[in-house]
Design a protein that fits this description.
With about 350 residues, the chain is α+β, with helices and mostly antiparallel strands. Helix content is about 30%, strand content about 20%. It has nine helices and eleven strands. Strand 4 and strand 5 form a beta hairpin. The chain is elongated and about 100 Å long. It starts with a helix and ends in a 9-residue tail after the last helix. Its main location: nucleus. May be required for ribosome biogenesis. This is Ribosome production factor 1.
Length: about 350
């Protein structure tokens, strides 16, 4: 076979291969779907895909997210579950709003939302201030001399041993809030030695601020000379310098006192103890208010100055300091850590088993 014949044969083979390729149907490339045969264009098909809503997640009635073993999947499903619940709640809210607008004046009254406060477990010791028994007890308790205007409050404020600067400043600012209060340094004296000296000098209260790691964490309030003595846990202390939008320094005017939500026998005693810290006749010219607000057995203290802008609007400016108290124990008589008789002690594991039961 000569060279010319080989070239001809090779060319014919390439020609045959080209013919075979032309006869085959072209397959679509990977990643690209063919257009639909119902006459839709490519843009219409893409638009239809974007308009499609994602499928809603419907959980079975006995479904529990905690059954999912995978942590990431469990977290994702929990978020989806919360999102679905939120959508249902918003839809129901909009539906009720439309119904109320349609009914107008004939619409039923709004439902009161459920809170821990209005779902509170009834306490048998809840008192009525007008009850004869309560009035008799108030006339013979340790604070009766103050409420009968026989004594004027005089308070000694001191600290634990070797107080730090922040605790000292806290005591000094408390002295500006409570009239006729005096700050003395402890100097290592035991409270059993301090109390007789306070009684001899005519003090009606001993207030001790305790600290731990430079943070105020406790308050002992002892009514003199016969008690009782209350021990509080102190938290969320903010001095005037640490507060935003604070007002000017408080004046020497006697403030008004507001006591909120002290409804039980124990709460009534604590409220009377706080009330007897301040003199009877407040100076309304100073426009200063000291508030003890009890909510879920936490006592929030705030100190404000108010101003009447017009007949309906009142402006309030916080002066500080602010702090939160939690009652730990109430002891009969003056402070005695060894032989003292306790009227009430907070036992966390027994008393905090129900979130809707409060003691003040």
């Amino acid at each position: 076979m000569d060279v010319k014949e080989v070239e001809v044969d090779f060319g014919t083979q390439e020609h045959v291969k080209k013919l075979k390729k032309k006869g085959k149907k072209q397959k679509p490339k990977k990643g690209k779907k063919p257009h639909k045969e119902n006459g839709e264009t490519k843009e219409e098909a893409e638009k239809a895909k974007t308009d499609e809503k994602p499928p809603e997640i419907h959980f079975p009635p006995t479904f529990s997210v905690s059954e999912i073993k995978n942590k990431q999947r469990r977290h994702f499903m929990f978020l989806k579950f919360k999102q679905e619940k939120r959508k249902e709640k918003l839809a129901l809210k909009k539906k009720r709003k439309k119904e109320r607008q349609a009914l107008g004046d004939k619409a039923p009254p709004k439902e009161v939302p459920k809170t821990i406060e209005n779902q509170r477990v009834y306490d048998e010791t809840t008192v009525d201030p007008q009850d004869e028994e309560i009035v008799f007890d108030e006339g013979t308790d340790e604070f009766s001399a103050y409420f009968n205007r026989l004594t004027n409050p005089k308070i000694l404020i001191t600290t634990s041993d070797r107080p730090r600067g922040r605790t000292v400043r806290f005591c000094e600012q408390l002295a500006t809030v409570i009239p006729d209060s005096h700050v003395y340094y402890r100097r290592g004296l035991a409270l059993k030695r301090v109390i007789p000296q306070c009684i001899a000098r005519g003090f009606t209260y001993l207030m001790v601020i305790n600290e731990d790691r430079k943070i105020s964490n406790g308050l002992i309030l002892s009514h003199l000379p016969d008690g009782p003595t209350a021990h509080f846990k102190v938290s969320s202390v903010r001095l005037r310098k640490e507060m935003k939008r604070k007002g000017k320094e408080p004046t020497e005017h006697v403030p008004e006192v507001i006591l909120n939500n002290f409804t039980t026998r124990l709460g009534h005693s604590i409220g009377r103890m706080f009330a007897s810290l301040f003199p009877h006749d407040p100076n309304f010219v100073g426009r200063q208010v000291a508030t003890f607000h009890n909510q879920r057995d936490y006592i929030f203290f705030r100190y404000h100055r108010y101003i009447f802008k017009n007949e309906k609007r009142v402006g309030i400016q916080e002066l500080g300091p602010r702090f939160t108290l939690k009652l730990r124990s109430l002891q009969k008589g003056t402070f005695d850590s060894k032989f003292g008789v306790y009227e009430w002690v907070h036992k966390r594991h027994e008393m905090d088993s129900c979130r809707r039961k409060f003691h003040l």
